[in-house]
Amino acid sequence: MLRFAVDAMGGDNAPQCVVDGVLQALKEAENRFEILLIGQEDKVKPLLDGQDTTNLNLTFMHAPEVVTMHDVPAIAVKTKQESSLVQGLKICKAGGADAFVSAGNTGAQMAASLFVLGRLPGVLRPTIAAYFPRLQDGLTNVVDVGANVDCKPEHLVQFAEMLTIYQRDAANIEKPLTGLLNIGEEENKGSELLKQTYKQLQEADSKKKINFIGNIEGNDILREKATIVVCDGLVGNTMLKFGESIPRFLASIFKPSIQQLVDSGKLDPEAAAITSKAFMDMFQPFDVEKFGGVPFLGVDGISIVGHGRSSARAIKNMIYMAEHMIEKKVNQHIAEALSDQ
Amino acid sequence: MLRFAVDAMGGDNAPQCVVDGVLQALKEAENRFEILLIGQEDKVKPLLDGQDTTNLNLTFMHAPEVVTMHDVPAIAVKTKQESSLVQGLKICKAGGADAFVSAGNTGAQMAASLFVLGRLPGVLRPTIAAYFPRLQDGLTNVVDVGANVDCKPEHLVQFAEMLTIYQRDAANIEKPLTGLLNIGEEENKGSELLKQTYKQLQEADSKKKINFIGNIEGNDILREKATIVVCDGLVGNTMLKFGESIPRFLASIFKPSIQQLVDSGKLDPEAAAITSKAFMDMFQPFDVEKFGGVPFLGVDGISIVGHGRSSARAIKNMIYMAEHMIEKKVNQHIAEALSDQ
Fold it and tell me: Which residues form a coiled coil (chains A, B) (predicted)?
């Protein structure tokens, strides 16, 4: 039976949302896996005590330290060895769990995962991708979104290769399409780095490692031209955060204008409520919770990284994601593909 | 009297929208400047013939060649010397006009401007900024958005300096605030390039050349933390195009859902129409037409670059922008600031 170590202390709404998410997962999945919940006893136990956990495959483990959102990653990993983050990963490394799940400090989780789990054979740099909104079936993953900000062409090519395997194995996308984010479509566009990357992506395509569709631009992402958008971590991180800020920005314009229409008698309150719901529903493709989190791809183990704002539902879906990655042997396939180069 | 050379052939809706924009500008401004309209006689003249231009300060000049949106910039500039683009800039250089305005091929306009006009003293690399949506007063300029994709720290610092002068002189912003786009707020974040840039921006701040507020992230742009967002051209270009694609993406979700509410009798058609208008109005902060275009900052002359989709109103506003930059001596101030370093 698979066993997942879950960081009870990670996330803005932790430990409550983590406890809720773990219980939901175990109940919904009817105990088909075990959960090792790790965190500070005085914070987590009271939340568990109020619940009926007698028939659930749930174990609690005390970890006295906590890595916070404000901790500097490299320092936190060294100085907080007794944290749920470091302990959870160490248990994975020792074989006591098959995957680690956290919605805590992303930088610290990446640093600790790399330090404790190490890299898969052949992987130059583990990477983190994000899910971008999509109307049609499939996925749009932008990679990298902040783990690597000084990428060389060979790093970007490996990101494409890892995501191709991930999408094919874990998301059932038959033919993942890789686009290189650039300032124009033509082959000779962009910096020297991008021109070199273009050539190496072509080579990877000719070896059937990826399906390369060429350069794409910022406005091609929501047009769903590619399922994998490759870029340096600064570009991906900026676009991700910029995109995340848009719903609130637009709502701050739309909501008052609807309210004004109601106040002035031009729109009846019922119609306004219906409209406002349609407006909020419009942002459903921006809902990252259905995925839960993203794997830190390329490390020798499974480490699922969640958004700090994760809800119980997101935590639950992160656990499912971990399970799915193990069943589909994503890491094994990445190691096979990248170690023979 | 100021004289502006306007490219009649530039833009998706050229020459019609250019002719309309020029006539609107001259009428609205009551002939306080002259316009030299340049383009292919057989395309432009018929449009002018239908109009009463007797009392307007308008001169037409024939240019047999046209630089299209599909031309490769460097090649177009060399091979199409008789185009409205190259001719217009040459007339500026020779003193026959005070500024050049075009909504044509941006890359070609930048290449031709640099080639024909040259750089202002002290300027390492001319740059192009974009206007980002803003709710409060002021401007949010992201710089660079595609003119420079391999920036060194000293280039990024100069972009901040030029934009500071531009915003202060031409947009009446008393204290422009510069933020460095990064993956996190802390000083030690990001690539080596960004760390170096951070230091040099601090130095420029201590010399009172700019007001540096530190690192900002993608989600800080719409929060209006900075009036000047400094980044490499790939990042800026990607974010600009990504942002431009969002209204259509959201409308493709919202409009059918409103229609469905009407069809199912849950929303009456009148309320739907009012709501749809509020929805479209929500994108007004995304309307770049009020600015018209952006100056190619750092060249020894005024070259205003418009969006390919420019309307007559945009063309008109680009002419006003050129006028304003000359009156406020923006170029003179940039040369003074950058040549004493």
Answer: none
Spatial CB neighbours of A172, under 8 Å, sequence gap ≥ 6: none
Residues with Cβ within 8 Å of B23's Cβ and at least 6 positions away in sequence, in order, are: B51, B53, B56, B58
pLDDT at B258: 95
Distance CA A335, CA A63 (A): 32
- Give the residue among B300, B328, B301 at the shortest CA–CA distance from B122: B300
Interface test with A, best of B136, B183, B268 (most A CBs within 10 A): B183
Asked if residue A262 and residue A180 are part of one domain, the reply reads yes
- Structure tokens given for B171: 């947009």
Q: Which of B232, B242, B285 minimises the CB distance to A219?
A: B242
Write the CA distances from A197 to A229, B173, B272, B315, integer angstroms.
13, 41, 48, 38
For A230-285, how does the pLDDT look when each residue is reduced to its tens digit (9 = 90+)? Answer: 999 999 999 999 999 999 999 999 999 999 999 999 999 999 999 999 999 999 88
pLDDT at B285: 83
What distance in Å separates residue B237's CA from the closest CA in chain A?
6
Write the ipTM.
Answer: 0.92
Domain count of the fold of chain A: 2
Same domain? For A88 and A74 the reply is: yes
Would you call A254 and B135 a contact, using CB atoms and an 8 Å cutoff?
A: no
Q: How many Cβ contacts (< 8 angstroms) between chains A and B? A: 161
Nearest to B233 among A133, A183, A252 (CB): A183
- Tell whether A113 and A7 lie within a shared domain: yes
Same domain, B329 and B248: no
B292 falls within a domain: no
Residues on chain A touching B217 (C-beta within 8 angstroms): 237-238, 241
Among A110, A183, A261, which would you mutate to test the B interface (most chain B Cβ atoms within 10 Å of its Cβ)? A183
How high is the pLDDT of residue B205?
98
- A283 occurs within a structural domain: yes
Which residue range is the domain that position B184 belongs to? 129-287
Q: Do A169 and A269 fall into the same domain?
A: yes
Based on the domain organization, do B37 and B60 belong to the same domain?
Answer: yes
Q: State the pLDDT at residue B341.
A: 65
